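Subject: for your reference before the review

Hello V.,

The reviewers asked for a structural picture of the protein, and I figured it would be easier to keep everything in one thread rather than splitting it across files. Below is the amino acid sequence we used in the manuscript, unchanged from the supplementary table.
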Amino acid sequence: MTHRVGYAPGVYDLFHVGHLNILRHARSQCDYLVAGVVSDEMALQAKGKAPVIPLTERLEIVRSVRFVDAAFVETVPDKLETWQQVRFDVIFKGDDWQGTSKGDKLERDFATVGVEVIYFPYTVHTSSTLLRQALDGLANSA
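And here is what came back from the structure prediction:
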C-alpha cells in the first residue's frame, strides 16, 4: 500500500475559513499532509507585503489544525527545491493558478518528478487580502 504525502503551501496570514477549507480538502486527498508556511521574506517577495502575523505564530496556528500532520517553513521560491526537502506526491494550489503561466510551469516542473498538481476552488469571498483591507479601513477611520 502506498502512502500518499500531500503538500499545501500558503502564507496562511490572518488565518480564516478559506485556509481551513484548503487544509481540510487537501487532507482528504492524501494520507499525510504537510503544510508549507511561506516565510515572511518569501511572502514579501511574492505579494509585495510582509504578513501581518509573524512566521512563528502562523506556523503554530497551522501546525495546530487537526488536518495537518506536519508544518514546514518554505524559504525558497522554487517548489522543486522544496520538493527535494519534503518529498511529497501531490501539491495543492488554489484554482486561481490553474491555466496561468505560473500554474502551467508548476505542472511541467512537477511532471518531471511524478508529482500531481491538484487545484482547489479559491475562496473568493474570504481572503487574507480582503481581511487586511478591511482592517486597514478600520484603522484609517479611527
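For the response letter, the relevant points are probably these. The helical segments are 17-27, 40-47, 55-63, 79-86, 101-111, 128-141. The CA atoms of residues 25 and 120 lie 8 Å apart.

Happy to draft the paragraph if you're swamped.

O.
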